[in-house]
Amino acid sequence: MKLQKFFAWVAVAIGLIYFLVPLIGTMEFSLRMRRNAYSFDAYASVFSDFGFITAFGFSMLMALLTIIFGMLLVVPTAYWVRLRLPQLRPVVEFITLMPLVIPAIVIVFGYLRLYNSSSILPLTGYNSTTNILLVCSYIVLSLPYMYRSVDTAMRTIDVGTLTEAAESLGAKWTTIMFKCIFPNVMSGVLSGAFITLAIVMGEFTMASLLNRPAFGPYMQLMGANRAYEPSALAIIALAVTWLSMGLLQLVSRFSKSAPIKA
Questions:
Q1: Please, what is the end-to-end C-alpha distance for the chain in angstroms?
Q2: Residue 217: closest CA among 53, 64, 58, 55
Q3: Please, which pLDDT band fits residue 5 given cuts at 50, 70 and 90?
Q4: How many CB atoms lie within 10 A of CB 98?
């Protein structure tokens, strides 16, 4: 028993070394921009760069739009499948899992082929429509996580009882959805939103091939032309991801302690 416990701690130590040593090395290198001294000059250089502000702001906007429209797509779908069409549940789950097995580069090349400037819907011909296409791409990428989070939250409530009670009081479909269903699955929506934020902030393939000024292509550009700033950007991106995961854990903890509404 003691031997098993010893090997378990050895495995944990190896895992921590494997993950922490590269992070510590990246952090240490990002502080060496000033010769013979540690400083935050690389971070100051990044934050003062207008390209960073533009790319970070653009990705944050895309993440916000992706979360909003993804939520409006996923929550009604999960609600309708659970309430009226349970026989379609395997089909919907299969569709939502497809982005996990289809590479992003295949998806974006399909978009470029379907929506190029010579097609019926030339979405790639204008910046605004290309942004719409990018949001749709991000919704597809985040679909497995958003749907799973919302569907798990919806299992904890009695959808049928809530719907019948609302209908008996004369509520319309929109009232049922936004005043009964959404508040009760908000923990799942927020969980999916934080994961979506992490995905959008780190995504490179779609934004690069669609030629959008997102954070992922900006990091790649900086990595090809600078020495210390890429390490600072990596730490910043990691901080955004950890913040999203921390908020996810916080929301999950509050959702477990909150009473279930019938």
A1: 46
A2: 55
A3: confident
A4: 12
**Paired tokens of 121:** 């819907």
3-class SS of residue 203 = coil
| Spatial CA neighbour of 92 closest among 107, 78, 104 | 78
How many of the other CB atoms lie within 10 Å of CB of 127? 11
Q: How far apart are CA 138 and CA 132, in angstroms?
A: 10
Tokens for 48? 């003062």
- Which SS3 state, helix, strand or coil, does residue 38 take? coil
Band (255; pLDDT cuts 50, 70, 90) = low
Beta strands in the chain (DSSP E): none
Nearest of 152, 136, 165, 237 to residue 192 by alpha carbon: 152
Give the domains, in start order, of the chain with CATH numbers.
43-253 (1.10.3720.10)
pLDDT band of 261, cuts 50, 70, 90: very low
Mean pLDDT of the chain: 86
**CA distances, 32 to each of 23, 27, 28, 240 (Å):** 15, 9, 7, 22
71: nearest Cα among 161, 194, 159, 162: 194
What SS3 state is found at 62? helix
pLDDT on residue 75? 92
Kindly list the distances between the CA atom of residue 200 and the CA atoms of 64, 184, 253, in Å, as whole numbers in the listed order. Answer: 10, 26, 24
> In terms of C-beta density within 10 A (0-12 exposed, 13-18 middle, 19 or more buried), how is residue 248 classed?
buried
CB-based contact 63:200 (threshold 8 Å):
yes
Distance CA 42, CA 31 (A): 7
